[in-house]
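Researcher: Please predict.
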Amino acid sequence: MFLVSNRYTDSVDAYRGSVSNNGTRSILHVEIERTEGPDCFQELDNMNGVPIHLSLLMYPPYSYYEETVTEKSNARYHASFKEDTPLFLDGTEVTLILEFCHKYNCSVEVSVDEVSLWGEVFDNRTGTGILGSIVERRADIAVSAIYYLSAMFKLATYTHPFSRSGVTVLVPKPLEQPPWRTPFLSFSLHLWAAVIVTFCLGVLAIWSIGRGRFRILQHDEKPVTLSDSTMTMIGLYVEQNSIIQTDLLSSTILFISLMLAGFIIGNAYNGGLAGVMTIPQYEYSIDTTVDLANTGMKWGATADPWLIPIENAEQPYMKKLVSTYRVVDDEFMVKHTKMHDMGFVGERTEFQHFVPADFVDNEASTMLQLLKDDLYWASAAAVVTKTCPFKQKLNDFIMQIKQSGLQYFWELQASYKYLNGSTQIAILNARSAKSKSRKDAIKLTVSHCLGAYMILAIGHGLASMVFFSEIFHIHLNNVASQWKKIVILYLRCLCNAIRKLIQFLTRMCK
């Protein structure tokens, strides 16, 4: 509304713009009419069929569209985008816009951008994707899980938030440890290192005290060797009989301490082994964003905007996540969902659905799990032009819908129609006790002894190799000894022949 001074009557006349549509596609009729009295400040309650240009993506359950027949349509393409084709729109955010137009008598005309997707905007008031369509004023409103971005406030504006969205990562589930690792799972890597160091120190202690004992007592028996010391330590660790010398106080004290240490370590190993043999053991599980950063695993999606809210984060693990993010295509994502080498970014909706999940089939959904925490969270809203005339009305309508709880029903309905239900259940229940991939205690089978068989096979193999090498070494020594005798005999004969030749030549010269 605007006011104009009337110099003939020394008063002020009020005028307001009237916008309407007669059914013609993408056409607005604007009229300036004079108003007076209480109608001067009348609120916008009837938009007279004005078409709202809506820009969106195929992104259920937030937004969905498909070409249809006129009887089933609730929108159509905008004239600047495509020929007149009836559309059926659905989704939590799109349904809110449709209900708004149903209440205030407006129509919806649509343009989409499945190439640039959300796109990006530039300071010269240009842009790509559905955000660029608002900045360049090619559309009135854009939806499809759009977050609040600081760059947009200079060029456009946001409505009240529609919903909360948590951005998380779908990571590979930990694989079950192969049976041959069973003997090594009782202790952690650090504990194994401590046991090995202690074992080596014990061997050196037994050997050094044994050598000292031999020198002090001067027995006829052979001195202790490293092999003897090693076998003694192994016997103590596996709680078997060992040769223990007690004729010196130092030996007694040493063996008492080694027996106690071996008893504790042996029992600890047996207890751990009983657990790992009956309860399936899994690889390291990626549970949080910090875990994902520590593993260095690559993660990514088909677009860059997922990374915008954290690309300037100061936390070290966030910087590492930014460096491992990759932009890939749909084919790459489908291929790597079953390869356990990559994470996939997505949204955890306000009512616990994961999107987008079209690259995950039923088999892949059983091999992936969501992080326990969100990478970050944000509020999703609609983007409108700065001069949008119905923004306040739309904001009021959004708050009415949110307090009514209708969005919960809309999301369930859209998810049931357009998302794979079995995939959603498998992903969201991947960490629960009901997950089919999780196993309870199991009966022992031959596979649990594969590790022991492997150790036995390696021991037999090494012993055989050493045995044959010893035979070969002895054979070489015997051959070398025989050749040495032959060479010595040959040299003696040669020397005798030379001596006799010299004697013969001496007699001839005389």
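Model: The chain is about 40% helix and 20% strand.
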